[in-house]
């Protein structure tokens, strides 16, 4: 069977974006990892939030083999994925004022914790207000977003600001406006989005930086092992017991 030219072009585009992020965001990724390590050492908790497809990268660092056991999803009902019916409801909820504050007020997040907010465009009310409210509560906010949107689109939040404007640390995914890497004659719409690939890589690189920062301090990173290898369940049980007061996906 012959190779697909377009498939190859997508890989090239995704690899190019990953290389740009690696080279241009290395300092910010290290800073994010250090902030996470600071929180782990201080007894704080870790949360990740994303709506729609941005939620995939948040879920990718929660309760998984090789991941930090302390990372929790900060869930906003109705916004996590296409399991909601109708799927368009999630997009609508991202534009609702006041929702982020209500979620944070009823969550276990408190001052001294870290919240990673993932939003490709960073322009909707939900991620912007999530960052504003989290910082007001004393959380450290790490934003994972595409700065291109803040430079080429208008905010949908009443403040006129974007996610990047309300974070302690910003990681730029470099994704272009529209999130589609291929544009081909004969196909009306651009296609082949790379945001999930790149954003998930940013999240995992951040976790690696956090593990490195903990190691430098002589602290064993609280990592989970695969349940599909011998001894994995026993290992994870010990970690979850030790850090039970900072893990919320079990309660």
Automatic annotation (TrEMBL):
<protein>
    <recommendedName>
        <fullName>UPF0309 protein P8A19_17915</fullName>
    </recommendedName>
</protein>
<dbReference type="InterPro" id="IPR022951">
    <property type="entry name" value="UPF0309"/>
</dbReference>
<feature type="domain" description="SIS">
    <location>
        <begin position="36"/>
        <end position="221"/>
    </location>
</feature>
<dbReference type="Pfam" id="PF13580">
    <property type="entry name" value="SIS_2"/>
</dbReference>
<dbReference type="InterPro" id="IPR050099">
    <property type="entry name" value="SIS_GmhA/DiaA_subfam"/>
</dbReference>
<comment type="similarity">
    <text>Belongs to the UPF0309 family.</text>
</comment>
<dbReference type="InterPro" id="IPR001347">
    <property type="entry name" value="SIS_dom"/>
</dbReference>
<dbReference type="InterPro" id="IPR035472">
    <property type="entry name" value="RpiR-like_SIS"/>
</dbReference>
């Amino acid at each position: 069977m012959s190779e697909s030219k377009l498939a190859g072009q997508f890989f090239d585009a995704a690899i190019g974006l990953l290389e740009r992020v690696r080279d241009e965001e290395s300092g910010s990724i290290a800073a994010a990892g250090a902030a996470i390590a600071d929180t782990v050492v201080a007894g704080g908790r870790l949360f990740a939030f994303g709506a729609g497809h941005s939620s995939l990268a948040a879920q990718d660092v929660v309760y998984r083999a090789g991941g930090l056991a302390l990372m929790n999803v900060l869930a906003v009902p109705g916004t996590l994925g296409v399991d909601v019916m109708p799927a368009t409801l999630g997009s609508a909820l991202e534009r609702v004022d006041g929702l982020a504050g209500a979620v944070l007020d009823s969550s276990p997040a408190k001052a001294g914790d870290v919240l990673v907010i993932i939003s490709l465009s960073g322009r909707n009310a939900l991620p912007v207000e999530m960052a504003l409210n989290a910082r007001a509560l004393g959380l450290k906010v790490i934003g994972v977003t595409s700065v291109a949107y803040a430079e080429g689109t208008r905010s949908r939040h009443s403040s006129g600001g974007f996610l990047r404007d309300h974070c302690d640390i910003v990681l730029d995914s470099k994704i272009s406006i529209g999130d589609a890497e291929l544009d081909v004659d004969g196909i009306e719409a651009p296609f082949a989005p790379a945001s999930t690939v790149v954003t998930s890589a940013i999240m995992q690189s951040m976790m690696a930086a956090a593990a490195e920062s903990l190691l430098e301090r002589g602290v064993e990173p609280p990592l989970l092992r695969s349940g599909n290898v011998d001894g994995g369940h026993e290992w994870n049980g010990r970690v979850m017991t030790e850090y039970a007061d900072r893990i919320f996906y079990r309660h």
